[in-house]
Design a protein that fits this description.
It is built from 20 helices and two strands. The protein has a two-stranded antiparallel sheet. Helix 4 runs parallel beside helix 14. The longest helix is centred in the C-terminal third of the chain and has 33 residues. It is globular. It starts with a helix and ends with a helix.
């Protein structure tokens, strides 16, 4: 059945590519590409892992994809997107070298404060001294220990550093014209990358990489007036960065795995790749469909951030850690990811899952077609919110991430950083990017 599902999804991906004017950035194309990729990875290890895909799992994934496509079609019809909109304008101005240097120094200080906060949390989790095992204790302290949390100062420093990195990435793509200015921006990105690696979490790296790729692809399309002739350049330029990032990601995984107290020791590289990219499909099939697990209340695994926000406003909603139960997806291999659909079905059932998918399609399609010919704050935010489309076959992050206090804080910091540059650039420039 998995082979049949891959065939159906691949056909749909080709149809989507043709129907949406061969546009790689179409929300439906990104959504479907994420599913095809995860299903192909799962297919590679199907015999090795020894699982059989249920027909109900095939139904859920395929129908969800169709519903997402219909959502974008509806938005296109509503907006009459046959007109391209405003012409793309290349932005030339950027902050002075002195301001850039100050921002780099600020980023460095923020990173130091954040790293010190991580070390303090690691000590609370049991880390004594030395580099060996440090990443394991940091990960344990920040993700699995309920009574240990990062200090508020360290968390805020990371949020500010992240906002600076995202603006730096945006500037490299849309604003910077000289090598020196790009160097300053790249230094901020490097400092941010180091901080994320030290935190033992790799999802922020994936999100940031998707953000940069998304912005660059959109810029290329803008320069070509959204003509599919840009596709050849996009494919040619992306091969090396994608493989380089994949190699870096796997290296981090192996470095951290050497000291993780899990039961995934001794697996081969193909198992490692499948664990991150394909086990969501297997988890959905095994845990949600076959064993029919369900949440005890609506939003238990997807709305903890929203419930926490409501509790701050005086309400009383139950909350818990977002981490799900680990299950055996293969002999000696455990995973706790169930694709995007796993959490949604656990919380809302199959019908509710389809409703969320349709809402997600409407949201991304409106957002994309409204800002695709701009290069201001809206574009920066859209790039930063692209990753749920790529991760559909891996994990649900749309509701988990965006309906939370953390996301509101991030938006505020992004806004402050983006529009704070107005002081050095002047009103004329800012009218151009709005």
């Amino acid at each position: 059945m998995l082979c049949f599902l891959v065939f159906l999804l691949s056909v749909n991906l080709f149809v989507i590519y043709k129907f949406f004017n061969k546009n790689f950035m179409s929300p439906s194309f990104l959504f479907s590409f994420g599913l095809v990729f995860s299903c192909i990875v799962a297919l590679v290890v199907q015999n090795r892992w020894g699982f059989v895909l249920e027909i109900e799992t095939v139904f859920i994934i395929y129908v969800a994809e169709i519903i997402f496509i219909l959502g974008e079609v509806a938005v296109r019809l509503f907006l009459e997107t046959s007109r391209c909109g405003d012409n793309y304008r290349k932005l030339q101005k950027y902050a002075s070298d002195r301001i850039n240097f100050i921002i780099v120094l600020i980023s460095f200080v923020l990173s130091i404060v954040y790293v010190k906060g991580l070390l303090s949390a690691a000590r609370e989790a049991g880390w004594k001294s030395g580099v060996i095992g440090l990443l394991y204790y940091i990960r344990r302290a920040t993700q699995y220990e309920d009574d240990i949390s990062l200090s508020r100062v360290a968390s805020w420093c990371f949020n500010i550093l992240e906002a600076l990195a995202y603006y730096a990435g945006f500037s490299v793509v849309f604003v910077c014209s000289s090598r020196k200015k790009k160097l300053y921006a790249c230094l901020i990105v490097i400092i941010y990358t180091f901080s994320v690696v030290f935190s033992a979490g790799r999802l922020p790296l994936i999100i940031f990489f998707i953000y940069l790729l998304g912005l660059w692809i959109i810029k290329v399309y803008q320069q070509k007036n959204w003509n599919f002739a840009a596709n050849k350049k996009i494919i040619k330029k992306l091969i090396v960065p994608i493989f380089a990032f994949a190699g870096f990601f796997l290296m981090l995984g192996f470095a951290r795995r050497n000291h993780d107290a899990d039961q995934n020791q001794g697996r081969k590289m193909v198992d490692t790749i499948a664990l991150y990219a394909g086990s969501g499909i297997v988890g959905l099939n095994q845990y949600v469909v076959k064993e029919e697990h369900r949440s005890s209340y609506a939003g238990q695994t997807t709305l903890n951030g929203f419930y926490t926000l409501m509790n701050r406003c005086g309400f009383s909603f139950p909350t818990q850690k977002n981490t799900l139960e680990f299950i055996n997806v293969a002999p000696r291999i455990k995973s706790n990811i169930y694709s995007m659909f796993g959490r949604l079905i656990l919380d809302y059932g199959i019908a509710g899952c389809f409703c969320v998918v349709f809402f997600m399609s409407i949201f991304y399609s409106f957002f994309f077609y409204m800002i695709r010919n701009t290069n201001g704050f809206g574009m920066m935010m859209y790039g930063g919110m692209l990753y749920p489309l790529f991760l559909t076959g891996i994990e649900e992050v749309f509701l988990v991430r965006f309906l939370s206090i953390d996301f509101i804080v991030k938006v505020v910091f992004y806004y402050i950083v983006f529009y704070g540059v107005k002081i050095s650039l002047g009103k004329k420039y800012f009218k151009a990017v709005l």
